[in-house]
Amino acid sequence: MRALVLEEKLKLSLRDIDLPLDLGPRDVKIAIHTVGVCGSDVHYYTHGRIGPFVVNAPMVLGHEAAGTVVEIGAEVKSLKVGDRVCMEPGIPDLTSKASKLGIYNVDPSVTFWATPPVHGCLTPYVVFPEAFTYKLPENVSFAEGAMVEPFAIGMQAAAKARIVPGDTALVIGAGPIGIMVALAALAGGCSRVYVSDLVNEKLAIAGQYDGIVPVNIRETDLKARIAADTDDWGVDIVFEASGSPRAYDGIFNFVRPGGTIVFVGLPVEPIALDIVAASAKEVKMETVFRYANVFDRALSLIASGKVDLKPLITGVYSFEDSIAAFERAASGNPNDVKLQITLG
Ligand SMILES: [Zn+2]
After folding, report:
1. Enoyl reductase (ER) domain spans which residues (predicted)?
2. Residue 268: per-residue pLDDT
3. Which of 197, 200, 269, 292 is the most buried (most CB within 10 A)?
4. Which CATH class, in words, describes the domain spanning 2-147+309-342?
5. pLDDT of residue 51
6. 188 contacts 161 by C-beta, under 8 angstroms
7. Ligand 1 center to residue 190 CA distance, Å?
């Protein structure tokens, strides 16, 4: 079957590759329609690895997908042929301790699309478990369906923050994930979400949404701005979504006493945190690894119109032009949020 294959670092090809398509009783076969290009796909392309995950053999890229069910296993009940769906790309062992606790995203045996050695979904057909395949509401397009996966990270961050209606928040980093986190925080009840970055183009994209206050930290002292707006109290929640080593320096200055910091970004190297500064405010700290139990909630929010992800899709490529899509994504154009590839 034809697929977009990362042969090795910096070498992509669109070629035939043997991929298993055996349909188990609780699996569905899906014709892929749209796949989003993710920062992690691009990182494997440009660096050949993410932390301990190293591309040692050709691997099909892609994990943000929507498509149409074309065949169902004998015991599938919730889906039928013709259903439009999106897929949650991590498959845990459903009998594991983590799964029983509801934290299946941190099941040590989870397999995840396009995380070595597991192939991704940039290929015309995949077979996937019914349990992690979600029917798209009628008014949710394939393009939006393929945005559920990156939005799910924002959903997980918002859930971890335990937002109370009216909370104020700061999101550090206006990249795709930062914007997803800000939108999920607003949908979760935040009254105002500051989004900070160094790049005006990214801030302009974030700032088009009501409730988001963009702050360029080259031009504005973020600590002084938040202090001025909150009577020196601080925001209720800080989401770190940049992974930039500089972002952790002084991060506890922004949060109010008893507030929460959610670490979403993944710094490449270990970083130091000022635990005394955190203790002095009894700051609550949370971490995020992918997501669990949020896909159907994300779909409900999109279908309701409360979250509009369409303005974040800044380029669409055909499957035949997949390599061009990855080259553009790797070029780091600050006006791009999400590029998608369509196969349908
Ligand atoms: Zn992704």
Report:
1. 9-334
2. 86
3. 197
4. alpha beta
5. 86
6. yes
7. 24
Phi-psi region of 106 (alpha: psi -120 to 50; beta: other; left: phi over 0): alpha
Burial of 110 (0-12, 13-18, 19+ CB in 10 A): buried
State pLDDT tens for residues 52-79.
Answer: 899 999 999 999 999 999 999 999 999 9
8-state DSSP, 218: T
Confidence (pTM): 0.97
CA atoms within 13 A on the CB side of 337: 23
Ligand 1 center from residue 38 Cα (angstroms): 4
139: CA distance to ligand 1 center in Å? 23
- Per the CB < 8 A criterion, the answer to whether 1 and 29 are in contact is no
Ligand 1 centre distance from Cα of residue 312 (Å):
14
The answer to whether residue 81 scores a pLDDT higher than 90 is: yes
Per DSSP, what are the bridge partners of residue 263? 240, 287
CA 43 / ligand 1 centre spacing (Å): 11
* Domain ranges, ordered by start, for the chain: 2-147+309-342, 153-287
Q: In the structure encoding, which two tokens stand for residue 7, read together?
A: 């042969």
What distance in Å separates the CA atoms of residue 308 and residue 316, rounded to the nearest whole number? 17
